[in-house]
Amino acid sequence: MPKQRRKRSVSAEAWIPPLTAVFCLLAIAAIAVSGQKRPGATASKTSAAGLLEAKRTFDTACASCHGLDAHGGERGPDLVSRPEIVRKTDAELLKVLTDGRTAAGMPSFASYAPARLSALVGYLRSLQGRTKVLALPGDPTRGKVLFFGKAKCAECHMISGQGGFFGRDLTSYAERMSADDIRAVIVNPNRDLDPRHGLVTVILADSTTLSGMARNEDNFSLQLQTPDGVFHLLNKSDIKDLSYTGWSPMPSDYGVILSPGELNDLVSYLLDTSRPGKGRKAHSNREDRDEE
Ligand code: HEC
Ligand code: HEC
Fold first, then answer.
1. Does 104 sit in the ligand 1 pocket, CB within 6 Å?
2. Which pLDDT value is given to residue 130?
């Protein structure tokens, strides 16, 4: 009896620092989830006790390589903000933990119980989610309405399989960007623009003029995409004049048309759709797996 008591009090003490840390984390995750009106994030599926246990496992089994905060150490990569890891599905992360990448220095944790491994994934998700969620400067739902409505972004850009394809697909564009960087690109698309990514005007031998984006160019041919999305494969020998305007085809007056609040909502939508597990639903999971 006395022996048992002593043991309990010792371990209770040892639990205090991790408990505090995990409760902070949970509070943040809870705020994040409720603020986003997006229940069902992986982190919320792992119970408080599970996360606490997972943090302890991480500290003892993973931190020596990945760092105590999981932001990377000398022997292992950053697990919190590296996009290719953040974008992996839970199942893919589980597989990495089970199989390991022994040749690359990542051991296999196949000896752990499945529940322990899932809790570890939940813990990683909670760390990943925290960084992204707190960065949202506005309301992603209103941003989505703007994107597909008044701001007309969807005329040129696609998100989750919806929209145009003259501009690039923005589904996971914001993954590695800050809110300020995204806002700057939207408000001033011509700043720092590489001329090759600007509008190209081509006059053909028969005097037809085409304007669009150069998607591919070599010594003999130019592949030009016009704003209607159509690709034109042109022979250089048929081209009388070719000029890079240095202007982005994107409207440059969003800073005037949209209020600062609306811009924040748009930026939030782009950030939100780039979060792990978001936006990918329209694509098959195979696409993600193929990246390996
Ligand atoms: C001995 C050092 C070491 C330990 C211990 C370790 N890892 Fe790793 N881990 C690595 C290295 C190195 C890589 C990079 C492997 C690669 O380049 O493919 C990695 C990669 C990963 C990846 C990403 C794989 C990918 O898809 O890119 C995850 C997730 C991961 N580790 C989680 C964990 C977790 C969770 C633990 C603890 C249970 C752990 N690691 C323990 C060294 C370690
Ligand atoms: C008339 C077509 C058009 C419209 C409308 C448009 N864009 Fe673009 N946008 C482009 C093109 C073309 C580029 C150049 C790079 C490319 O091909 O994706 C671009 C670039 C971007 C980039 C930078 C991509 C990169 O590679 O760095 C972002 C972010 C972006 N647009 C967001 C938006 C948002 C948000 C809206 C709505 C507020 C919008 N765009 C409206 C055509 C458009």
1. yes
2. 55
